Each structure stands twice: as structure tokens, then as C-alpha cells.
Amino acid sequence: MRTGMGNRVSRHVFVLRLRLVVVSLFFLGMASCHSQHQPTVRSEPSLDPGWPKPNPFFTQVSYKAVKAELPKYADADYAHDDSGCADCHKAYVKTFATNVHRGESCESCHGPASKHAEEGEPGLLFRFSKIKDPVLLAEACLRCHEQNQCAEVTRWRTSKHANSGVTCVSCHRVHYNVLPGTPATNVSKDTAHQSHGSSIKLTAHNAPVEENPAPAKAKLPSLRGTSNHLNAMSPNVCYRCHGEMADLSKIAGPHQIGGPNGFNCTTCHEAHGQLKESSRTELCLSCHKGTPTMAWHSSLHERSGVACTDCHNPHPSARVPQTVNIDHYQVNRPKRLAMSVQEPEVCFKCHAKIYGLTDMPSHHPIKEGKMVCSDCHDVHGEALGNLKEETVNMVCYRCHAEKQGPFAYEHPPVTERCTICHESHGTVADNLLRQPATFLCLRCHAGHHNRQRDLQNKPVFKKELYTDCLSCHGEIHGSDRPSSAGVGGRFTR
Question: Is the residue at 439 inside a domain?
Fold first, then answer.
């Protein structure tokens, strides 16, 4: 009886203890979820999508050509009578004398106006304000401007702007008038396509050529040079859509938009939606002729097709870094360097192998932030491997001067090239060695297999002779003392 009761008590105590353990684990888990000391994953460099490829953003790209057919107005003919337009549009006709398009007929842009003049119906004429299709609006301008094959506008159809719904009148005011009394410029080559009276030539793909075209008017001096591009003045006209770039004109710097060096949006961009290919390298070198780019044309990067804009961002962020470096005696905020590259991330975009090597157990402290690639490499230089010195050894000696010597007994591989034994970016073996020390030594040295007799007499040395060469030969970079055997230069400790 007592035994049964004791068992029930024991089971009851066991259940209570079990419940207590479960509840404790529950609250412990809740506490750990809200703990401020959660284990974190080591952050890796922020790599852009598409890594490890170069930055393709600042390259000239051609999109699908956009085209459209201009509307045709039934039974409409060309009236060739701008004076009739003045009856209703007197203000436009009067100020047209100071317009860059003066000398052209109204019908050159608005199409045949005979039906419009007869019935007075606005819908019987090509009205820019009523056309909603941006491609169609551009076609009205391209009737004339596409004829000059040397002009930038001939690449409009395959531009980014054209494929983004931007059209000519988004930036230009067709009826823009220069100030009265503005002296006319000489007639330039880009006005050679103008007909100055015969609007049929400009719209030949829409209407048949008349047998008796209107008599040509007297040629007027061009106002093209004083028209301010029909009010499309950069950078203000660009900021209408690209407002995020407005800071580039507010922050002082050598590449400041509107700054002392005369940079503007059109310095690198064609106004009609294309990027100037020369702006990726040649334009940069036109100013940066000295150091550090004086050897760029013979550098490894240039021969590999890398451009300046693959590493440098022509639209640098104007924000001041928010991180603060706190030392024992001062607080420093990192400087904002215009168009500077972010190392080592920008290098890792192309050098995928090096990115992997820097994650090896033995590596230079690049990801720890104590070194950057440019401490050893001159990306604009001509030396082998874009090094900052003429040889690999001279680069290594900048930090490891004690390995340079001179020594009484030099180790030939050391004086020849450090990379014979070391992989500078990272290895599995210690001290950046390409292999564990013993295997590395045995690539050139036969070892001690010919000293079997000595091993039989002194078996205590067997462990050292067959484990690690560095146990005895510690001065592998060079030595000033002879060996105990009387033979100089054994690099012993």
C-alpha cells in the first residue's frame, strides 16, 4: 500500500519537475529572442547585382528604334500662304521673325492647312498641344532634322529618351523667340537642309511633290546660334526629370555642374538621349594628363578594355557619410571624395578569384579594413600587375623591410621573387605560403633522406627531420650565421 502511494508521489514530483523545466526553457527562449547580444553573421562587402562584371551603366546603348506615321488629312493641300495664318494667329506670325525656324512655312510643321483654313476646324491640322503620342510628336520634328546625317538627333530613334516617352517638345519650345535686336549668326552647315519656302520638300513622305512649288523666299541669316537650343538649356532642363542630380551643381568640386571647369550635362551626354562614348575614357584623359593617369594607355586595365567609368561614378553621391570614427582623443567623420572608388568592392566586381582568396584562413587584412588594394596596386600604372613598384619584392619590402636584408647568406628564391613561395592575396597555409612549409621546401630541396645513418645513431632527430623544416631552418629569408655543420648558409636559427 505504501509502495503504491510512494510511486504515485514520485510520478507526481517527476511531472512537476518536468513542467518546471519546460516553463523555464520557454521563458529562457523568450529572453534569448529579446537579447541584445544576438550572434551576427560577419558582413561581407556590398556587391552590386551582376557581380563580378564591370559596371555597364555608363556605356552607350542603342535601343529598339521607335517610329510612327504622321496623320494624313483627307482632301487637305498645302496653301503656301502664311499671311492667311495671321488672320487668326497674329501673335505667332509676328514673333516668328525672331524664331530660329523663321523662313519656314507654318505648314512645314503643322502639315497641309487648306481644309483648316476653309472650315476653321482645329482638328484638321497637326496641333502639337493636342497630340499625346510622344513618338508622333518627334516624327514632326524629324522630318527636317533627320536629314542632316551628322547631327546628334539622327540617333534619336534608338535613344533612351525616345524609348522612355520623352519627345522633342518635352525640352524644346518650338515657338521660342530670341530677344529683339539679337544679331544673327552666320548660316551654319546644319541649316543646309532647310528649304526656306518649299514646305513640300520637308513633307515629301506624306504628300506628293507639287509640280509648281511655291517660290523660294529670300534666305534670312540664321538665329540658330542665339536660340539657346529653343529654350532647352542644360542643366535646368535636365533637372525637370532628373531632379536627383541637382546636388551635382550645388556641391563644389572639380566636376561640379556649372562650376569653374565648365562641366555640364552635355559634357558627357548627347542632348538627344545618348551617352558620348568618348566620355568613358578619352574625355577624362583630356584633363587628367599627369599623375596618376600618365601611364594609363600602357596599363593592364586599359589593354583589357576597362574604362574610367567602370570604376569611378560620374554621378557621385553628395551625401556626407554618416559613420564616425572615434579614437581615444578625437572624433573623425570620413571625408566625401568626389568620384572616389569604394575599395575593395569595386575591385572585386572583376577580380572574382582575388575575392575568394581574401577569404582564405591566411590573408592580408583587406576585408578587415586595415588595407585596400591600392596599397600595393596602382590601377593607372604600367608596371607588371599594375603594381606600385617595379617588382613584386619592392612592393613587399614596403611593409616587410626586415626580409630585404642584406644577408651574408641569401636564399635565392627570396631575392628572385616573393611570390615563388607566397600567394599575396590569401592561402590555406600559414603566413600566405602556397603550401605547408615542408612541402614547399621539398619542391626544391631533396630533404634529409640521405642521412639515414645519422638517424640510426640519433633517433631523437627523426621527428624533426620528418615533420617541419622550420624547426631547424627558421631564417629562410636569409641568414648571417653559418650552420653548425660548418657549411655556410643553412638558414638555421
Answer: no
